[in-house]
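Reviewers asked in the last cycle whether our approach scales beyond single polypeptides. To address this, we selected a multi-component target totalling 224 residues and predicted its structure end to end. The input consisted of the following lines:
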Amino acid sequence: AQTVTQSQPEMSVQEAETVTLSCTYDTSESDYYLFWYKQPPSRQMILVIRQEAYKQQNATENRFSVNFQKAAKSFSLKISDSQLGDAAMYFCAYRIGDMRFGAGTRLTVKP
Amino acid sequence: DVKVTQSSRYLVKRTGEKVFLECVQDMDHENMFWYRQDPGLGLRLIYFSYDVKMKEKGDIPEGYSVSREKKERFSLILESASTNQTSMYLCASSLRTVRGKLFFGSGTQLSVL
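The resulting structure, written as structure tokens, was:
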């Protein structure tokens, strides 16, 4: 079975600083996608970034970037220049056919 | 914009009731999903439908069933609601491709008393 592990239930960052959220996954497949979703207090799930397993280059979306280590099955999310609006639950996910999520990391941003 | 609509934002039911959670998407997506979200457990997949009348069990299907008679609608059914089914339920849809992102509804917070 696919599993996704987020080992940090909570993280805190100072506004304008950088924070990294960890994610590991377990699979025997070679072709898959990895995602980070954000869930603010509104409960609406928002896609932050996605990465194709075949691509060596790490995905980047503005202040969000990933560190994808395929051999280690690691997919961390780096948020640069943190803003108050980044405060949310962050979920790492893995997709082959269906999509499986980790338990989430609650990010607090301090002004 | 893609819209995934869940019929209720909050729902209160009694133990033993049959409960229907409805989800409708407007983007002709093949795939639809039902998850439940609990603190500390993240999103757990209940059922996945990859096309009309097609379904697969997720990690926690016990106590639930689903129906997908039309492409745009995916219903989650609690045959006999129990207190341990009190949770947030999220519906999602996507294109039939591994790179497809999921579009989510705004969730239904179900309380079973």
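Chain B touches chain A at residues 31, 33, 35, 40-45, 48, 50, 56, 58-59, 88, 90, 92, 94, 98-102, 104, 106-107 (CB under 8 Å). We regard this as preliminary and will revisit it once experimental data from Aim 1 are available.
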